[in-house]
Amino acid sequence: MESRYIGLMSGTSLDGIDAALIRVDADNTVHFEHSISAPLSPKLRSDILQLCGTSHEEIELLGRTDREIGRVFANAALQLCESAKLKPADITAIGSHGQTVRHRPPNTDRHHEHAFTLQIGDPNTISELSGITTIADFRRRDIAAAGQGAPLVPAFHAAAFRSEAEDRVILNIGGMANISLVKQNGGVEGFDTGPGNVLMDSWINARMQRDFDRDGDWAASGRINTALLQHFLQAPYYSQTGPKSTGREQFNMLTIEESLAYFPPIAPADVQATLLELTARTICDAIENASTDLAPVFICGGGSANLALRSRISTLLSKRVVSDTNQLGIPPDWVEAVAFAWLAKQTLNHLPGNVPAVTGANGPRILGAIYLA
Ligand SMILES: Nc1ncnc2c1ncn2[C@@H]1O[C@H](COP(=O)(O)OP(=O)(O)OP(=O)(O)O)[C@@H](O)[C@H]1O
Ligand SMILES: CC(=O)N[C@H]1[C@@H]2OC[C@@H](O2)[C@@H](O)[C@@H]1O[C@H](C)C(=O)O
């Protein structure tokens, strides 16, 4: 029997809520059917940013924002149903990623007993207001099993994008960037490579009050500062081996400013050009190390629309075919939300959603909790 799921995602970039509708056939084939994006109000965006920072936090703001995100996520799900001419009763479940406000995975200075990750967007509220069973809190079970809690999309990439003819690299460029190496033999590897759009977004926001550098035009107008690039590349994250995951805690405006303090003033456009080069280089180095047999690369996430970044990635990976997930049937902007719709299906069917080889968890785990309608 076929069933329908909704995936709700608000990522590190804070550019809005992505809501995607999938249909899953009796043979488990996933079809991307419909999508909408819903904005975050300036007030909610600024509250979330405050919670992502390490100062001025308070339980009141956390509790209030958790409920507010629950409300806007529920509305996004209802709007998606309306737009797809479906009733809430037609949807088996929502998979809600929520909004990450802190990600402290286990790593060299934090053992798994002290690791935690926090995604907010109250699933009780989503279930109550939408009338749709909601599955949420996907990452914390993996952390409890000594995993990174991220990235979680590799299991979906393997289920949806595997080819029997070739290995494939799926590159997601969101706020952070992550790769999945989907092997033709059924295996999958993956990790966060480091910054995706987050550093370029932060810099243009600080200097030009724009949310992002459209098409990478500003970066393309500047020149790469080699010394600054080398300085950025020394961040320990890039040379760490996986399992590894990261977030705004490690890559943010403060980390840019700390590096700039070592140098005489650098033209802002040159800084942007250098940040784009850093992003492209760290992504491509990670791909070359993970996949030595020139597997083709399929890009997804908002960064796939950054023409200058895409062109630089294609140049650095010139021996490979680089395209995007449109070639695989899902438009780049919707892969993450679709992945959380699919993860909801996994949980509802008591199937694991993590890949222990990716996250480092002690074993496969059924992720999240179910909030019945
Ligand atoms: N035309 C464009 N030119 C340049 N950058 C773009 C363009 N369109 C989108 N982007 C970038 O994509 C970002 C949004 O990407 P996306 O929605 O994948 O992020 P996200 O949901 O926060 O992802 P994640 O959860 O993986 O961090 C924007 O902040 C911007 O940097
Ligand atoms: C903690 C968290 O929210 N991480 C996100 C973020 O955005 C990209 C990268 O960092 C990845 O680790 C993850 O998202 C995707 C959806 C994942 O879990 O696969």
TrEMBL record:
Coiled coil: none annotated. The keyword Iron-sulfur does not apply. It is an enzyme of class 2 (transferase). Signal peptide: none annotated. Keywords: ATP-binding, Carbohydrate metabolism, Kinase, Nucleotide-binding, Transferase. The keyword Kinase applies. GO terms for molecular function: kinase activity. InterPro entries: Anhydro_N_Ac-Mur_kinase (IPR005338), ATPase_NBD (IPR043129). It catalyses: 1,6-anhydro-N-acetyl-beta-muramate + ATP + H2O = N-acetyl-D-muramate 6-phosphate + ADP + H(+). ATP binds at G11, T12, S13, L14, D15, G16, I17, D18. Pathway: Cell wall biogenesis; peptidoglycan recycling; Amino-sugar metabolism; 1,6-anhydro-N-acetylmuramate degradation. Its EC number is 2.7.1.170. Pfam families: AnmK (PF03702). PANTHER family: ANHYDRO-N-ACETYLMURAMIC ACID KINASE (PTHR30605:SF0). NCBIfam families: PRK09585.1-3. Catalyzes the specific phosphorylation of 1,6-anhydro-N-acetylmuramic acid (anhMurNAc) with the simultaneous cleavage of the 1,6-anhydro ring, generating MurNAc-6-P. Is required for the utilization of anhMurNAc either imported from the medium or derived from its own cell wall murein, and thus plays a role in cell wall recycling. Belongs to the anhydro-N-acetylmuramic acid kinase family. This is Anhydro-N-acetylmuramic acid kinase. The lineage of its organism: Bacteria, Pseudomonadati, Pseudomonadota, Gammaproteobacteria, Cellvibrionales.
